[in-house]
Amino acid sequence: MTDLFAKLTAYGQSDYYPYHMPGHKRQAMGALVPELARMDITEIDGFDNLHEPTGILLEAEKQTARLYGASESFWLINGSTCGILSAISTAVPKGGHILMARNCHRAAYHAAYLRELQVTYLYPEQEDVFPIYRGISAHQVSRALAKEPDIRAVLIVSPTYEGRISEVKEIADVVHAHGIPLIVDEAHGAHLGFHRACAPNSNQCGADLVIHSVHKTLPAMTQTALLHVNGPLIDRNLLKRFLKIYQSSSPSYVLMASIGNTMQLLEQRGAQLFEDFIRKYAGLVEAVEKCRVLRFLPMDSVQDPGKLVILCPDRYIDREGDVRQGISGQQLYDILRDRFHLQPEMAAGNFCLAMFTLADVQEGYTRMRDALLTMDAELYRGVLQAQGHTPSMTMEQVRKVLSIKATQAKALKDAWDSPTQWVPLQEAVGRMAGEFINLYPPGVPILVPGEEITMELIEAVESYCRMQLTVQGIRKQEDMTLLSVLSE
Ligand SMILES: Cc1ncc(COP(=O)(O)O)c(C=O)c1O
Fold first, then answer.
1. What is the pTM (predicted TM-score) of this model?
2. Is ligand 1 within 6 A of the CB of residue 185?
3. What CATH number is attached to the domain comprising 154?
């Protein structure tokens, strides 16, 4: 693998004086970290140009493509966000029709808005025990495409934030039978395909465009990502045009060096690092599966190793045989953070999520295992001290919210540009949403601009707020919660 990192390090130690940007001139002024400042250059001789690569960056991108089994790969320094924007803008003509999973990241909705797309949603089904979305099935895609013959591309998220993996290969076959491309937002799966315990990556499954956040599940710096392209359905020149539009014209060499460093690690030590990671993670899952109250998603073929989903049921039987009320996802999260000093990734209504990658040290596994076994034993004995709000929604109620299919009264492209006003929650019933309402993280929309606001959606927003989860797109005014609606 081309070693951009080493080349930048050597350059930083050389006697070339910089009469160019960035303005720090490779000096660690103020609190700037010297190693980073020395490495942070612009497109000077010998360092290529990410937007028109012909040298070291082109070679590195080619090596990335080989590593991931893609026909072409692009390094991204504006996260998967710019990869999703570029992929959708390329795959669907302006004003065209896209079929996309409802649990897509907001970047997908932003692309639909910018490119004035018509959107049809695929609502994932739900898991049996856990109130979370499953992956998308090929059958669902096939049914949706049969109903809407003018769809120009399909977009799914796999793995999901919680680690659920879709039938990508089967979906690719269905989508290709319609002569259109499949885009997979695999932001959470840059590590896929490197070990037999992980699913193959979506390039290996036949997807046309695949987006990876290197920074999410591999040892790389925030904002680093990849976009891969395969097959004959994608116009490469158009893709490059959109990458120029959505990426900075001053790509950070620090971030690019970080991508290069990760690619090199995967190439040179990937097999051993993944073997070690999977062994430690499987050991953790095996240990915590002995819990009597807490529940974990099993490490099966549709669950991405590394995403530990920790759930406390609404009700459970304690040691005395009495029925007790469980604790909420936020309470699980707070106990792990405040008492055990373990910072989880996120809390949802009934579960919390802890992420593991190949960078975790043994201490990370041991401390999580011990904390979960301790909490479980205390729950079982009925002595766990939990602060804050108990669940105000049962798992059944969360399921009901996840199953709501909003009605699009006005297209996103028109609605988001329309005049809006803020009204109290209860007065919003029957109106059209003026803003996205998202539960964060990961930011899956409860409501999209232009969708009809129903009583059950308002009740869902109220419940999420009561559980102290972060609902984006609302406003608090004194004791009131306000929603943005389209003006009448
Ligand atoms: C499913 C999914 N896709 C895309 C993104 C955006 O990724 P990035 O932060 O690399 O821009 C996220 C971020 O959380 C995500 O969860």
1. 0.96
2. yes
3. 3.40.640.10
